[in-house]
Write a structure and sequence with these properties.
- It is a single chain.
- This protein is an alpha+beta fold.
- 16% of the residues lie in helices and 31% in strands.
- The strands form three sheets. A six-stranded antiparallel sheet has the order 2-3-4-5-10-6, covered by helices on one side. A four-stranded antiparallel sheet has the order 1-11-12-13.
- A hairpin with a 4-residue loop joins strand 11 and strand 12.
- Helix 2 runs antiparallel to helix 3.
- It is elongated, with a radius of gyration of 22 Å.
Length: 238
Amino acid sequence: MEDSTADDQYCGYPGFGLKCSDSGEPILGLPNNDSYFVKHIYFTLSTITLVDIDIVDQTCPRATHSMSVGTLPFDYSPLDVNLSFYFNCTSFPDPILVPPITCWGIYSTKKSYVFKEGEEPDGFDWSKNCEENVVVTVKETEINRSIAINELSGAFGVAMNKGFVLNWTMAKECVSCETNGGFCGYNNTAREVLCFCKDGHGSIGTPSNGLCNKGTPYTVSDLNPLLPSVISGLLTQN
């Protein structure tokens, strides 16, 4: 957990800190100042499920930004699929053949659309004729379930509120440390990676400069004294 009173040294990767909302829900910040509620963390699978704070509990959410993980050690999950939104199109195909999104109103002279990314109808220049294109990630199972009940143009809201899944991997700066039983951390003041070892020492700089003895990794009980700042670090452990 992020803590403004915490020491300069902490466990975990930079940028992996969780904050709490006023209602106590954990929040993860991603690049571009985008924030997501953390719905599930599966340590054995190294996956995390996120929901965009901006659209929570909206039946007809308006996607405002595409998602980016930047340089954080996240990968998109095979469980996900991308939805491509085209907003405020001034020219568009026959609405009977290509249904627009109607929950924002049906009387505007501009129309908006949503498709699975890469499945936009051919023969029309969507980027040229629409003011904005935003790509969001959702669980494919939720899209398939929603489409079975309704068209995608009327069912995307349910899928967006169910969130999406990311896999996390070791940060490249931490591979040597973690594969040798250490626990990766960071020094805010020096802006350097740390390698915390079970014997109590911590090496500053590249973890390979001070590896832990392989076979003596940290356990959760070993890390209890470091809580709550260790929570963000736990995201790095498989």
